[in-house]
Design brief:
By secondary structure, the protein is an alpha/beta fold. The protein contains 8 helices and 12 strands. It binds calcium ion.
C-alpha cells in the first residue's frame, strides 16, 4: 500500500533558509508547502490543511506569536517554532501561546527530523488513544493510574505535588513544558509567577529519581524555558 507523504507547512521569510529547509524535508519523504510571511502562512494553514507547521518567529508582516495565537483559536495544528539562540523569552512565549516544540537556530537536520517525527507520532496517537497508563525509559518506570514510580527494582515514594509534577512531564514526554505551564498545572493559575516552587520541587524529584541529580538523565532542563522528560529518542 502506498502511503501519502505528510504535508508540512514552513513559514520562513529568509529565502535561502527556506529553500534549504524545504529541499531537506522533501528529500526525507515529506511534502512541503512554503510561505514567506505570516499572512500567507495563515492562508495556507487554513486552505491546505497541513499536518504540521514549522514557524519562524521573526516574520516581516505579522509576528510569529500572533500566527500561533490565530491558529490556536481555531485549530490543533502541531507547531514547531524556530528561533534565534539568544531569544529564550520568545520561545517561552511561543510555547505558552500553544506551540508544541521549538528549535534554536542553527540546528541539525537530524534534530529537526526527530522533532517532526515525535510530534506527528504524538498527534497520531491522540484520537481514541485514551490516557497513557504507564511510561518507561531506561530504568525509570511510572504507572500513572496506580501512582507508582520505580527506578529499576526500587520503588520511589513521591509526595502528591512531586507526583503531579512528574505526571505532567510524562503526559508531555519528549516535549518541553514551560515553567508557566508547569506552575499552572501543578499549583494552579495564581502560581504562574512562583518559579521558586518549581525549582525546589524539581530538585527534590531529581534527588529521588536521578542517579546523579546534578547531571540529570530523565528530567532535563531547557535553560530559561522549562523542562523536558527524556524519552531516550533524541
Ligand atoms: Ca526570520
Amino acid at each position: 500500500m502506498e502511503t501519502i507523504k505528510p504535508l508540512l507547512l514552513l513559514i520562513e521569510d529568509d529565502p535561502q533558509f527556506r529553500l534549504l529547509l524545504s529541499t531537506t524535508l522533501e528529500s526525507r519523504d515529506y511534502r512541503v508547502l512554503t510561505a514567506a510571511s505570516g499572512r500567507d502562512g495563515l492562508d495556507a494553514a487554513r486552505h491546505r490543511q497541513p499536518s504540521l507547521l514549522i514557524l519562524d518567529l521573526g516574520l516581516p508582516d505579522i509576528d510569529g506569536q500572533q500566527v500561533i495565537r490565530h491558529l490556536r483559536s481555531c485549530s490543533e495544528l502541531p507547531i514547531i517554532v524556530l528561533s534565534a539562540r539568544d531569544r529564550e523569552s520568545d520561545i517561552t512565549q511561543a510555547l505558552d501561546n500553544g506551540a508544541d516544540d521549538y528549535l534554536t537556530k542553527p540546528f541539525s537536520t537530524a534534530e529537526l527530523m526527530s522533532r517532526i517525527k515525535a510530534l506527528l507520532r504524538r498527534v497520531a496517537k491522540l484520537p481514541g488513544g485514551g490516557a497513557q497508563e504507564s511510561f518507561q525509559v531506561d530504568e525509570l518506570k511510572i504507572e500513572l493510574t496506580r501512582r507508582r514510580v520505580f527506578v529499576g527494582e526500587r520503588e520511589v515514594h513521591l509526595t502528591p505535588i512531586e507526583f503531579r509534577l512528574l505526571s505532567v512531564l510524562v503526559r508531555n514526554a519528549g516535549f518541553v513544558v514551560t515553567h508557566r505551564q508547569l506552575l499552572k498545572k501543578v499549583w494552579g493559575a495564581s502560581y504562574v509567577e512562583h518559579s521558586h516552587y518549581l525549582r525546589i520541587y524539581m530538585g527534590q524529584l531529581r534527588h529521588k529519581i536521578e542517579a546523579d541529580p546534578a547531571r540529570p538523565r530523565y528530567l532535563l532542563t531547557e535553560a530559561g524555558v522549562g523542562y523536558r522528560l527524556n524519552t531516550g529518542e533524541n
